Amino acid sequence: MLDDSVDLENEEPEIEENIESGEISDSDIAESDSEDSGLSAEENAALMEISSLPGVGPVTTKKLHDVGIYTILDVAVRGPTDIADATSFETDKAVELCNKARLKLVEIGKFDKDFVPATEIYDRRQQIERISTGSSNLDELLIGGVETQAVTEFYGEYGSGKTQICHTLCLNVQLPVEQGGLSGGAIYIDTENTFRPERLRDIAVERGMDPDDALSKIIVAKAFTSSHQELLVGELGKVIESSNARLVIVDSLMGHYRSEFLGRGTLATRQHRLNRFMHLLTRTAETRNVAVVMTNQVMSAPDAFFGDPTRAVGGHVVAHTSTYRLYLRKSGKNRIAKMKDSPYHPEHEAVFTLNERGVDDPADAKSKKK
């Protein structure tokens, strides 16, 4: 029990007993899903309240609200370690809270059951939405565009087009679905002071969009330290809901970590914090149904005697956690994107260019298509 002061007499005993024991049958979930299907928005919001969890009272609720955790979905996304650190709860208590949140989300149909047939996952994958990058070549490499419920990483040296892709995506996500967008807004976490509204206005005008309306749908947050960066991502849930955001951009991932953690003595601490940050991004993408795009810096591998010595920074932690990884490099006036890691994309390359429209296809590619 999380609150000694909580009165559980008004809770439904049968449901609570099942949750406390960790045993919820498929029939219980099915009955709950059918009951929730006819609920109003207000009733659904009430179900998502932290206080709706059995054994959670006003004291625990206030502690969670104070650290930016407002719903049971926020509890599930943050995880027990983050909750324990932020609230000073004991780890066992945080684990118990997260388990109850997950079971509640399964019960009301927000999360899937633990074991589902592959056919069901396949059918759900067919409904995944995508955002056009602005270049048909790059979209083809990504098999339709940047996916929701996934973390897509673009890494490359300076001037390779990482930030320009982010700016173009901020506008394209606002387009209707039939035009390659998601009719939603964007959240831009700027860690290197590279966000430029002037550039967005120019791209919007070239693409036939109202620049003022386009800028009003982009929420910008500047991160001044790695801790601030982590705090901003932890608070994304409320901002996503209030702004109808379908795209979250982190530009860039490693800037603050590289400047704050110097030398091998701090490497373990840096990778530990980076690992937690990456998993928070991944859980946010999956549970909030948003596309997460991040840019990453590079370094030169000193032991690479042959081939391209360029490597993404962040080590295996970032490499394993990113869903899709694309390497950008310069090629004259054009840019080349190569799919370096993906669960199902082939390792191909695509040529695109940067112009007044942001990300676009090269002129020769356009003429060939005509």
Radius of gyration: 22 Å
Q: How many domains is the backbone divided into?
A: 2
DSSP helical segment count? 17
Give the CATH superfamily of the largest domain: P-loop containing nucleotide triphosphate hydrolases
Q: Any overview of this molecule?
A:
This protein has 370 residues and is an alpha/beta fold. It has two domains: 13-107, DNA polymerase, domain 1; 130-369, Rossmann fold (3-Layer(aba) Sandwich), CATH 3.40.50.300. The protein has 17 helices and 13 strands. A hairpin with a 2-residue loop joins strand 10 and strand 11 (334-341). The relative contact order is 0.12.
Structural descriptors:
370 residues, alpha/beta, DNA polymerase, domain 1, 2 domains, two-stranded antiparallel ribbon, 13 strands
In short:
The chain has 17 helices and 13 strands.
Write the layout of secondary structure elements.
Layout: H1 13-21, H2 26-36, H3 41-47, H4 58-66, H5 72-87, H6 91-107, H7 118-125, E1 130-131, H8 136-141, E2 146-147, E3 150-156, H9 162-172, E4 185-190, H10 197-206, H11 211-216, E5 218-222, H12 226-234, H13 236-243, E6 245-251, H14 255-260, H15 267-288, E7 291-296, E8 298-300, E9 310-312, H16 315-321, E10 324-331, E11 334-341, E12 349-355, E13 358-360, H17 363-369
Parallel strand pairs: 3-7, 3-10, 4-5, 4-6, 6-7
Antiparallel strand pairs: 1-2, 8-9, 10-11, 11-12, 12-13
Helix pairs in contact: 5-6, 5-15, 9-10, 15-16
